[in-house]
Amino acid sequence: MKRHSRSALAGLTLAAAIIPTTAAHADQLPLAPLCAEQRDTTGTQYAVNLCDVTDVDQFRTHLAAKGNSHCGPASLYNAMFYLGEKKGLPMRITPNGQLLTEYDPAVPADYDAVTAWLGWLGYKAGMGPDGGGSSLSENRAAFDAATVGAKASGWTVNRGVTTSDTTPEFGLEIAKRLRQAPVQLTYGRYVLNADKTHTWTGGHAVTVVAAKGDVASGKVELTLHDPGRAADHKSEGYLDTQSATRGEKVTLYRMAIAVKSTPKDPNEAPTVKAHTYWRLVGDNYVGDTFQYVDAMNWFEAAPPVG
Predict the structure, then answer these.
(1) Contact 220, 171 (CB under 8 A)
(2) Which residue, of 59, 76, 138, 163, is most buried by count of CB atoms within 10 Å of its CB?
(3) Is 244 helix (H, G, I), strand (E, B) or coil?
(4) Which residues sit opposite 138 in a β-bridge?
């Protein structure tokens, strides 16, 4: 792994504006437990597991709103880093800039450069100076911006979206896409109304690194890297250091729900629409809301032929 100084990103105004001045103090984060990759998606059972996937923190001092809405760029970054490390996909901020993989999130000396990458991905995803969040389509646009040079040099680069509402075997589809790279999953936070409808109150994006289940079971077990959850969250210095990798174990269950809109115009009546989403349940995903997965971004890449 090569490493370069922050000057490698010189000339990019946005990156220069968000580079923090406080570096992490440890030499390197502890190594993750030993892992074996698995890609089984045939038959009535499936299991896919990816190793060495980064788990970058979204909360950082020098991101807009301290990274409060950077779950999209952070979960995207994890998938991109895997493609760069495992398949060699070259991704750059500028045509002559350093590769994304020249900077290791686990190395404190690279913390500033990783933060700059997250800021740039957010910018390319349409996020404003105050944050504001990003959609799956906007994150795909950021991925496209980072891979312009790769495609120009002959790389085959594909990405797309799969919605849970229109995919009965959504768990199996996650597993199939994981064979190529981590996927970016989004879920909405919903409150349950007195009339048994659900109303969306916000959303979050995570990176999926493993999936296993049975076809036609209506459920799937996932391992996530969640940019918003870490053992040291809100502890002293957490905004200026990278936390250790942590796999979040969750289960998705296929469910039909009725979603009630919240019109901006108080004179407009809310609408109710039926959806078949996948409810996300896990020990660290509890509270006053229900989590329903709506879609995922998937990515794949192949080097030039010949």
Answers:
(1) yes
(2) 76
(3) coil
(4) none
Phi/psi of residue 155, each to 5°? -70, 145
- Burial classification of residue 130, based on how many CB atoms lie within 10 Å of its CB (0-12 exposed, 13-18 middle, 19 or more buried): exposed
Residues 6+ apart with CB under 8 A from 46: 40, 171, 172, 175, 211, 212, 213, 214, 215
Cα separation, 294 vs 277, in Å, equals 6
Spatial distance between the Cα atoms of 212 and 39, rounded to a whole number of angstroms: 10
Please, what sign has the CA dihedral across residues 246, 250, 256, 257? Answer: negative
Q: Which helix (H) or strand (E) holds 300?
A: strand 290-302
With tokens 């220069």, the residue in question is 16
Q: How many CB atoms lie within 10 A of CB 304?
A: 9
Query: What are the angstrom distances between the C-alpha of 236 and each of 60, 69, 284?
Result: 13, 21, 21
Give Cα separations from 110 to 5, 84, 103, 105, 248 (angstroms): 8, 16, 5, 6, 25
First to last CA, the chain: 26
E strand spans, 14-71 = 38-40, 45-49
Structural contact between residues 175 and 213, judged by C-beta atoms closer than 8 angstroms: yes
Residues 148-171: tens digit of each pLDDT: 999 999 999 999 999 999 999 999
φ, ψ for residue 239, nearest 5 deg: -80, -10
Supply the mean pLDDT for the chain: 90
- The pLDDT tens digits for 63-86 are 999 999 999 999 999 999 999 999
